[in-house]
Specification:
single chain; alpha/beta; Rossmann fold; 2 domains; about 40% helix; elongated
């Protein structure tokens, strides 16, 4: 059987008890021909699963086998990614490409930052990420910092925001990051002062930015809300907004960002089958998003 005849196989490692149907549908639409789905995957199970991928085909055919890591727990997904990397054998050419997108963390963050970049140069832009200590918020802050933006990382607990800033600074040399407590209206007003971009990436159903505080921020140009569960995270932004101007601010809601997120997700799955040596996390997914 030639390389062109080999089926595109995707190993889905999901940390939830039942592997995501959503992720399976996207994978099929992106060109995966067979999906081997495993739920409740733990780190001690990874070695056998990875070896099942890399020892069944020759190195020249391993670009047609790939691994997708998903589930609702991003930290657990990150642990699986680290474990997968330990059991690949790149020196022998025995490796496959891997994508981490637990809870849509990387594709959503990439879509949000790309949305902002359509309207403002990110280098030296002043941004604030609300819910910045969550998995998506951290990635949004990280990507903005890599683009050269000055980023306030907002959290109801300022200490947690400071920890996230330290973690991102270790990954992004020269990053300009400021932690901020955002639990009260006064704290929010202070965090937004002089900011041009706000991204709300907090927990579902929590209003992170009341309309009164948003309207008081005269410098604001772009508001992006990633919460689709009522009440929305940025009050006054509709979940379907896509570059919709409201009160002089360009607004995106969760569905408005979601269209781009889906395109990025499909493109990332498709890219897995181009080579067998890719590890796709936030930065790699974001780079891919430039062409979507």
């Amino acid at each position: 059987m030639t390389n062109m005849e080999k089926k595109k196989l995707l190993l889905q490692l999901d940390t939830d008890p039942q592997s995501s149907v959503f992720d399976r549908v996207v994978a099929i639409d992106a060109g995966a021909e067979h999906i081997f789905s495993h739920g409740s995957v733990k780190p001690d199970q990874v070695q056998g699963l990875v070896h099942g991928c890399i020892f069944t085909r020759g190195p020249k055919d391993l670009n047609r086998t790939a691994i997708f890591i998903g589930g609702s727990d991003v930290a657990a997904g990150e642990t699986l990614l680290a474990e997968v990397k330990k059991h690949l054998l790149p020196n022998w050419g025995l490796q496959v490409s891997v994508l981490l997108d637990s809870n849509g963390c990387n594709t959503t963050a990439a879509a949000a930052v790309r949305a902002a970049a359509r309207h403002i140069a990110l280098k030296d832009a002043k941004a604030v990420v609300l819910g910045g200590t969550g998995p998506v918020g951290q990635r949004v802050a990280r990507l903005l910092a890599r683009e050269g933006a000055d980023v306030v990382v907002g959290s109801r607990q300022a200490q947690r925001a400071a920890g996230v800033c330290s973690n991102i600074a270790a990954l992004v040399p020269g990053a300009r990051l400021t932690p901020a407590g955002t639990g009260t209206a006064d704290e929010l007003t202070s965090a937004l002062a002089g900011r041009q971009i706000v991204v709300a990436a907090g927990a579902a159903g929590a209003v992170l930015l009341p309309k009164s505080v948003r309207l008081a921020c005269a410098s604001l140009r772009i508001a992006i809300d990633l919460n689709a569960v009522p009440p929305v995270g940025v009050e006054g932004v509709d979940i379907g907004d896509k570059a919709k101007e409201r009160d002089g601010v360009i607004c995106y809601g969760a569905i408005g960002v979601g269209d781009t997120k889906m395109k990025i997700h499909r493109a990332a799955i498709a890219k897995l089958f181009e080579r067998n040596d890719q590890i796709m996390d936030a930065e790699e997914v974001y780079a891919l998003a430039a062409g979507v």
